C-alpha cells in the first residue's frame, strides 16, 4: 500500500519536475498546438522549426507548452528536442559574424583615421621642428649682434664720434678767426685813437 502511494506521489510530481524546461521544435517542421492533448480540440497556433517552447506539463507522448507570445497548448513530444536545431545555431553564428564584421569594419575606419591624423601630426611636428631650428638660428644671430653692439659701445663710449669732432674743430676755427680779428681790430683802433685803419 505504501509503495503505491509513493509511486502515485512521484507520478503526480512528474509534471512539476518537467516544468520550465525549454525545448525546440525540430528542423524543417511546422507543428500545431492544440487545446487538448492527443491533437484534440481547437488548433491554437502553428509553430515553426527552431521556435523555443517552455514545457509546462508532460504526459506520455505529449507536452503542454507555452510559446514566446504566451500561448499555451498541447503538442507531440516526439517533435521537440532539447538541443537547438542546427539552423538556429547557424543563424546565431551568422548574426555574431555580422556583428563582428561590423565591429571590424568600424575598427578599420578608426585605424585609417588614426593613421591619417598621425601623418598630419608628424608633418606638423616636422614643420614645427624646422621653424624652431630657424628661430634658434635667428636668436643666436641676434645674440651675437647684440654682443657685438655692446662691445662697440664699450669701445667707443669714451671717444667722441668723428662728425662731432670735425664740427667742433670747424667751430673752434671760426671762433678763433673771429676772436683773432676782434683782437687785432681792437689793438689797431687803440693805437690810432679809436679809428680803424685799413
The CATH homologous superfamily name of the largest domain equals SH3 Domains
| Major pleated sheet | 5 strands, antiparallel
CATH architecture title of the largest domain: Roll
Structural class: alpha+beta
Q: Tell me the fraction of residues in β-strands, as a range.
A: 15-25%
Structure write-up:
The protein starts with a helix and ends in a 7-residue tail after the last helix. The chain is α+β, with helices and mostly antiparallel strands and 198 residues long. The longest helix has 71 residues.
SSE topology:
Layout (H helix, E strand, L loop, with lengths): L1 H16 L3 E5 L4 E7 L3 E9 L3 E8 L2 E5 L5 E5 L3 E2 L4 H71 L5 H30 L7
Antiparallel strand pairs: 1-4, 1-7, 2-3, 4-5, 5-6
Key terms:
59% helix; two-stranded antiparallel sheet; 198 residues; alpha+beta; 3 helices; 21% strand; SH3 type barrels
Give a short overview.
The protein contains 3 helices and 7 strands.
Amino acid at each position: 500500500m505504501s509503495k503505491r502511494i509513493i509511486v502515485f506521489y512521484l507520478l503526480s510530481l512528474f509534471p512539476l519536475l518537467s516544468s520550465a524546461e525549454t525545448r525546440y521544435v525540430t528542423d524543417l517542421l511546422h507543428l500545431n498546438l492544440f487545446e487538448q492533448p492527443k491533437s484534440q480540440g481547437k488548433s491554437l497556433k502553428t509553430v515553426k522549426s527552431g521556435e523555443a517552447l517552455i514545457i509546462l506539463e508532460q504526459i506520455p507522448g505529449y507536452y503542454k507548452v507555452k510559446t514566446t507570445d504566451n500561448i499555451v497548448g498541447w503538442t507531440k513530444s516526439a517533435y521537440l528536442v532539447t538541443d537547438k536545431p542546427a539552423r538556429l545555431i547557424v543563424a546565431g553564428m551568422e548574426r555574431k559574424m555580422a556583428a563582428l564584421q561590423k565591429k571590424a569594419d568600424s575598427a578599420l575606419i578608426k585605424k585609417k583615421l588614426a593613421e591619417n591624423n598621425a601623418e598630419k601630426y608628424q608633418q606638423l611636428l616636422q614643420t614645427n621642428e624646422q621653424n624652431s631650428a630657424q628661430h634658434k638660428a635667428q636668436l643666436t644671430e641676434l645674440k651675437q649682434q647684440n654682443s657685438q653692439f655692446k662691445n662697440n659701445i664699450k669701445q667707443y663710449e669714451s671717444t667722441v664720434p668723428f662728425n662731432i669732432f670735425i664740427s667742433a674743430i670747424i667751430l673752434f676755427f671760426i671762433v678763433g678767426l673771429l676772436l683773432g680779428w676782434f683782437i687785432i681790430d681792437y689793438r689797431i683802433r687803440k693805437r690810432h685813437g679809436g679809428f680803424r685803419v685799413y
